[in-house]
């Protein structure tokens, strides 16, 4: 059995060898997690060149060399050449660096799940490498069930929890409150954008703080979802 984990990647140096369709997808995922990304690609596409020019990643426009591994913590061998991928993996391992091999699930040290991301809520789907197409399909199904409302929902739950834990240590009472709130109508109030109903629901637990809490979470969420700030949609991959 594989061991699933969520890793902090902020500032962690990662190497992607091969910047084709797959390498670019891996690089984008790493960037979303804040990693420091280096891509080695002898014939970079215009998107990669633009990302390098914008300072999002470092691009080495040539074939892989063993020296590229220096300082790296994770490596992605994503060329279309099985022998080159195997060589990158071998070199990585000899330096004690974990390597993902695009065309060799069983030879990889780790592989990636399909992801649904709603703020701090992450749903990760793995088929153990058996069927990435099924992982992608399940990801799309889950995206439809777990709509954008889950982001403010989780933010509110997190803030209520922080508030209550700062005030008293009472695990039994807290458990009842949190279960009531996750099973109750909070999510549907969020979906209906009914701020007054949210405030009424939360007031018994956070008192006068409810109004400020609800309004600030909804406002931050609106700013985040404004067209100029919203994340690039995964159109190309979903088409
Ligand atoms: C083992 C793994 C290693 C790794 O890359 O980490 C791996 C390996 C391989 N993928 C292949 C093919 C495809 N991969 C996708 C898509 C994704 N692949 C991802 C992960 C993984 N892919 C890991 C296992 C994950 C698991 O547990 O299932 C996702 C989830 C995450 C991501 O990459 O970020 C992302 C979905 C993102 C999303 O949409 O949400 C599609 C879908 C499509 O493009 O339509 C296809 C075509 C359809 C098909 O083949 O099913 C091939 C064959 C290549 C060939 O045929 O030559 C291999 C190699 C092999 O199996 O030998
Ligand atoms: N893991 C996954 O999610 C998936 C894996 N694959 C597999 O991944 C591999 C790559 O697929 P694509 O990105 O679609 O191929 P692609 O042909 O678009 O990209 C491969 C890139 O690697 C570069 N390259 C070749 N040799 C290199 C070297 N020695 N050093 C650095 N760069 C080098 C090429 O210039 C090319 O741009 C294939 O083996 C494919 O079967 C395919 C689909 C999904």
TrEMBL record:
Pfam families: NAD_binding_7 (PF13241), Sirohm_synth_M (PF14824)
Keyword terms of this UniProt record: NAD, Oxidoreductase, Porphyrin biosynthesis
Pathway linked to the protein: Porphyrin-containing compound metabolism; siroheme biosynthesis; sirohydrochlorin from precorrin-2: step 1/1
Top EC class, one word: oxidoreductase
Oxidoreductase is among the record's keywords: yes
Domain of life: Bacteria
Keyword NAD in annotation: yes
Enzyme Commission number(s): 1.3.1.76
InterPro entries referenced in this protein's UniProt entry, alphabetically: Met8-like, NAD(P)-bd_dom_sf, SirC_C, Sirohaem_synthase_central, Sirohaem_synthase_N
Bilayer-crossing regions: none
Domain Siroheme synthase central: 118-143
Catalysed reactions, as listed in the record: precorrin-2 + NAD(+) = sirohydrochlorin + NADH + 2 H(+)
NCBIfam families assigned to the protein according to its UniProt record, in alphabetical order: cysG_Nterm
Designated name of the protein: precorrin-2 dehydrogenase
Record organism: Desulfobotulus pelophilus
């Amino acid at each position: 059995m594989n061991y699933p984990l969520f890793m902090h990647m902020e500032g962690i140096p990662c190497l992607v060898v091969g910047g084709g369709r797959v390498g670019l997808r891996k690089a984008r995922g790493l960037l979303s997690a804040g990693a420091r990304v280096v891509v080695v690609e002898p014939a970079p596409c215009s998107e990669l060149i633009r990302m390098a020019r914008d300072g999002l990643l470092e691009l080495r426009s040539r074939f892989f060399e063993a020296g590229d591994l220096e300082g790296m913590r994770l490596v992605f061998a994503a060329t279309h050449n099985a022998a080159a991928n195997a060589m990158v993996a071998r070199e990585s391992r000899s330096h004690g660096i974990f390597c993902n091999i695009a065309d060799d699930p069983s030879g990889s040290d780790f592989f990636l799940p399909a992801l649904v991301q709603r703020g701090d809520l992450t749903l990760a789907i793995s088929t153990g490498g058996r069927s990435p197409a099924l992982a992608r399909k399940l990801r799309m199904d889950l995206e439809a069930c777990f709509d954008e409302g889950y982001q403010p929902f989780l933010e509110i739950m997190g803030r209520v929890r922080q508030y209550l834990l700062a005030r008293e240590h009472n695990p039994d009472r807290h458990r009842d409150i949190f279960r009531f709130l996750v099973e109750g109508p909070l999510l549907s109030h969020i979906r209906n954008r009914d701020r007054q109903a949210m405030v009424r629901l939360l007031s018994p637990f956070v008192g006068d703080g409810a109004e400020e809490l609800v309004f600030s979470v909804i406002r931050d969420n609106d700013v985040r979802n404004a067209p100029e700030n919203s994340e690039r949609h995964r159109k190309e991959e979903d088409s």
